[in-house]
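can u do me a favor
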């Protein structure tokens, strides 16, 4: 199992926003005794599935994109079971900056991309059509090796 960790300058505000904008649920929250947000550790899930760790900038090498001129080193991708377009509108209403409107991709998934309140990039996807590798190669004009 892999778990992604994202860091925020203001992790408590981020937790509230991630719940409101994306529908994440906080399943664990550990706060230090001194109230210093840099030491917060939390875990979130989406509809009871997956795990995302959210924390503060607890070490010099742990930074929010906001501390790095909004540069990212990763994108968090979340697979939705349904209602991708409604999810996009929910995120937009909460203040997410939509950088790619919902679009059906050649590989059978509908996706949208957005940026959160501290500059993290997110991709949300929903499978709308099951395609074989050969169908994906033909539709996308690409060569695919391996398996899904």
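np, heres the sequence
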């Amino acid at each position: 199992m892999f778990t992604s960790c994202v860091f925020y300058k203001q992790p408590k505000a981020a937790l509230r926003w991630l719940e409101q904008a994306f529908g994440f649920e906080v399943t664990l929250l550990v706060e230090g005794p001194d109230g210093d947000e840099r030491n917060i550790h939390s875990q979130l899930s989406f509809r009871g599935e997956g795990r995302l760790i959210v924390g503060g900038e607890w070490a010099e090498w742990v930074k929010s994109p906001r501390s790095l001129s909004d540069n990212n080193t990763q994108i968090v991708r979340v697979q939705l079971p349904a209602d991708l377009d409604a999810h996009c509108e929910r995120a937009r209403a909460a203040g997410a900056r939509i950088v790619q409107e919902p679009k059906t991709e050649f590989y059978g998934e509908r996706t949208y991309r957005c940026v959160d309140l501290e500059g993290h990039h997110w991709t949300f996807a929903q499978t709308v059509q099951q395609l074989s590798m050969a169908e994906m190669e033909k539709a996308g004009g690409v060569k695919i090796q391996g398996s899904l």
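Residues 1-64 form a domain with the Signal recognition particle alu RNA binding heterodimer, srp9/1 fold (CATH 3.30.720.120). hope that helps!!
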